[in-house]
Amino acid sequence: QVQLVESGGGLVQAGGSLRLSCAASGSIFSSYAMGWYRQAPGKERELVAAISSGGFTSYADSVKGRFTIYRDNVKKTLYLQMNSLKPEDTAIYYCARGVSGSYSSGFGSWGQGTQVTVSS
Fold this sequence. Notes:
Order of helices and strands: EEEEEEEEEEE
Shape: globular
Number of helices: 0
């Protein structure tokens, strides 16, 4: 079993920064790909960023150059550093664990989400 708990969301002005954290427990964290999804009202869920067990990363075009995904395998924590935030980044952000070490295989476990609101 795995439990994922997100934190770090909040209200920020456009151009500001936030760092989201996802604490994992009850799993072999380092063996799995991890990712961040987001969902805004009226829109489909979007994969924002992903990182493989080997440290390879992938980003959605909408956040490339602004967001950075990284992981601390000792602390079993996933992070998403978000810079130069835009109002269109407003969404609930979800931490997800992959079904394997490769993020191309998809994700299966999810956290409860943390709200990010960017004011204009």
